Amino acid sequence: MPLYRRMRSVVTLQSPATDYKRVISFLESRSVEDVAHVHGNILPHLEGTFELLQKWGNPAPLCIAGLCHSVYGTDNFEVAILDVSQRDELRALIGPEAEAIVYLFASCDRRHLYEQVGRSSPIQIRNRFTGEVFVPDSLSLKMFFELTFANELQLVGSNAAWIESSRPMFESLFTRCRGLVSEAAYAHFAHVYGGVHDVQLVNQTRSARPAQETI
Fold it and tell me: Would you tell me how many other CB atoms lie within 10 Å of the CB of residue 76?
C-alpha cells in the first residue's frame, strides 16, 4: 500500500480551503501575529510551511499540521500558543491525525533524534515533555521529517546568508534523511543547499533506483 494511502482514507478534515481559514482564524484569536519569530511574527512562517508541504504533494492532515506546527512550541522555540494540556482543543479543530503530527513535532527532543539519523536503527524519539523514549512507526517518522524539511527550508528561503549559516547544522542531517522524506522535499533541499546540478542528480538517481514508496 503506498505510503499515506491509509492516512488519506481516514482524513477528518472537511476541505483544505475551509480548514485553512478556520485554522488561521483560530491562530489569530490566539494573537499569533504578536508572537515574534526570526523574520517578524510567526504567522507568515506557518503559512509558508503549509504552502511548501502542499506544493510537495502531501495529504491534508500533514499540510494543516504544518500550519500549526509550533502551536505547542518546540525544543528550539519555547513560545507556546496553546498548552499541551489543551490538546483536545486543537484536536477538535484540525482532527486527530493532524494534531498527532503537531504534538510529535513539538514533543521531540531533536538533539536526541538527529544524532541517530543514518547512524543507528531503530531510530528512537525522546518525548521532552514526559521523558518517554520510544520507537516511532515509519509513517510517523517520515511525517516528522517531511515537516522538519518544510519548516527549516521555509526559514532559510533563498537567503544566501541564512543558507550558509544553517549549512553546518542541516546539510549533513538532511543528506542523511534521504529516504525519510518525499523526493520533492529532498529535491528542494538539494536545490537550496547545492544548486540545480544536485536537483538533476536527485532526478537521475530516482530514475535509476527501483520504485519505492514516498510521502
Answer: 9
Angle, alpha carbons 126-37-55 (nearest 5°): 75
3, 213 in Cβ contact below 8 A? yes
Side chain identity, residue 118: G
Q: How many CA atoms lie within 13 A of 162 on its CB side?
A: 11
Nearest CA-CA partner of 75 in 125, 120, 124, 143: 125
pLDDT in tens, 51-108: 999 999 999 999 999 999 999 988 877 778 889 999 999 999 999 999 999 999 999 9
Residue 129 CB burial class (10 angstroms; 0-12, 13-18, ≥19) = middle
pLDDT tens across 8-41, in order?
333 334 455 658 999 999 998 887 776 655 666 7
* CATH code for the domain defined by 5-208: 1.10.3210
- The amino acid that residue 69 corresponds to is H
| Average pLDDT of every residue of the chain | 83
Longest dimension (CA), the chain: 49
Provide the grid cell at 189.
533541499
Q: Which residue has the cell 485553512?
A: 20
User: Structural domain boundaries of the chain?
Assistant: 5-208
